[in-house]
Write a structure and sequence with these properties.
mainly beta; three-stranded antiparallel β-sheet; two-stranded antiparallel sheet; 1 helix; 5 strands; 40% strand; elongated
Length: 83
């Protein structure tokens, strides 16, 4: 089971929750990444607090900037190719 960072209501950092979620294997031309670290930027803080140009559809997720290791490729392929 993977962990995701969600919020179910608008507010400050106290509304953030780490929740478990089953992640399916990667689909066509997708990869699965084991995240080692992710950043939360100003736009995400504004999104969480309801001050961004988009209104969050709750529950909403954060953490779109990440660093990690590829652990699975689509259709069992090995290696990545630059295009």
């Amino acid at each position: 089971m993977s962990r995701v960072l969600r919020f179910h209501e608008i507010g400050g950092p106290e509304v953030l929750r780490i929740e478990g979620e089953e992640i399916p294997p990667p689909g066509r031309v997708k990869v699965q990444i084991r995240i080692h670290a992710f950043g939360l930027n100003r736009a995400e803080a504004m999104f969480r607090s309801g001050q961004y140009i988009e209104v969050p559809k709750l529950p909403a997720r954060l953490g779109y900037e990440a660093a990690g290791t590829v652990v699975a490729n689509w259709a069992g392929r090995s290696g990545l190719q630059n295009r």
